[in-house]
């Protein structure tokens, strides 16, 4: 059986990546492809428990400040479980995997935002993930100010609607997000074949069309 294809979506909170992932999944399924979607952190029973600690803005009130290295380790515990439970089986079955965040997020948020540095993140990736890399990463990187406004507005709506506050990261300073933005640009420059950056703040439909074109071209190539 032909190996599946692993696509990740990356970007700042509020960049639109989750919306684009859902639209791509719908389009691929309409073509008759089998698609597995997941998010990190989360997506497995263990991952969902970890997510409740990492993204809930009330976590630190109950647990105390989460050290940057502990945050990094929890992210990779979630990722290792996701790889074992979902990603590797789906690849073996020949499915297309669409994942909302992966190790690039850890390098950007913990390596850049928390200032742990790329080397520590990449060493953890090698140890916990056996260096499993996506075949393609779609990096949505519109202007910082637009992303932050959308992210904070979205979290407010989510809290009002569901009563769950996943705004722990959105409460960070603009400087924190500038470091993340810069780190994403660094990663994109380092891996130009794997990462396809979309920097313009275009409409949802326009970005979806660009993504469809890129994915169609990549799926037509042999994997590996």
How would you describe what is shown here?
- This protein has 224 residues and is α/β, with parallel strands linked by helices.
- It has one domain (5-219): P-loop containing nucleotide triphosphate hydrolases (Rossmann fold, 3-Layer(aba) Sandwich).
- It is built from 9 helices and 5 strands.
- The protein has helices at 17-30, 45-54, 59-63, 68-92, 103-113, 118-129, 144-162, 174-190, 204-219, and strands spanning 5-11, 35-39, 96-100, 136-140, 195-198.
- A 5-stranded parallel beta sheet has the order 2-3-1-4-5, with helices on both faces.
- Helix 1 (17-30) crosses helix 9.
List the helices and strands and how they pair.
Layout: E1 5-11, H1 17-30, E2 35-39, H2 45-54, H3 59-63, H4 68-92, E3 96-100, H5 103-113, H6 118-129, E4 136-140, H7 144-162, H8 174-190, E5 195-198, H9 204-219
Parallel strand pairs: 1-3, 1-4, 2-3, 4-5
> In CATH's first tier, which class applies?
Alpha Beta
- Global morphology: globular
What is the overall pLDDT average? Answer: 90
Give the uncertain stretches in residue-range form. Answer: none
What's this, in brief?
This protein has 224 residues and is α/β, with parallel strands linked by helices. The chain has a single domain (5-219), classed as P-loop containing nucleotide triphosphate hydrolases (Rossmann fold, 3-Layer(aba) Sandwich).
């Amino acid at each position: 059986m032909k190996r599946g294809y692993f696509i990740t979506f990356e970007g700042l909170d509020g960049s639109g990546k989750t919306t684009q992932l859902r639209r791509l999944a719908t389009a691929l399924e309409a073509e008759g492809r089998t698609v597995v979607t997941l998010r990190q952190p989360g997506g497995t029973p263990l991952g969902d428990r970890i997510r409740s600690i990492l993204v809930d803005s009330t976590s630190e009130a109950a647990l105390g400040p989460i050290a940057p290295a502990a945050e990094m380790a929890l992210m990779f515990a979630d990722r290792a479980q996701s790889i074992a439970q979902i990603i590797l089986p789906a690849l073996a079955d020949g499915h297309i995997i669409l994942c909302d965040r992966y190790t690039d997020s850890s390098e950007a948020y913990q390596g850049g935002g928390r200032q742990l540095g790329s080397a520590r993140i990449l060493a953890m990736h090698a140890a916990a993930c056996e260096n499993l890399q996506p075949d393609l990463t779609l990096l949505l990187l519109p202007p910082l100010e637009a992303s932050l406004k959308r992210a904070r507005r979205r979290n407010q709506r989510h809290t009002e609607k569901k009563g769950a506050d996943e705004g722990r990261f959105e409460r960070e300073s603009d400087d924190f997000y500038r470091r993340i933005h810069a780190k994403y640009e660094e990663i994109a420059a380092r891996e130009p074949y794997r990462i396809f950056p979309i920097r313009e703040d275009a409409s949802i439909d326009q970005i979806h069309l660009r993504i469809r074109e890129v994915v169609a071209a990549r799926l037509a190539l042999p994997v590996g």
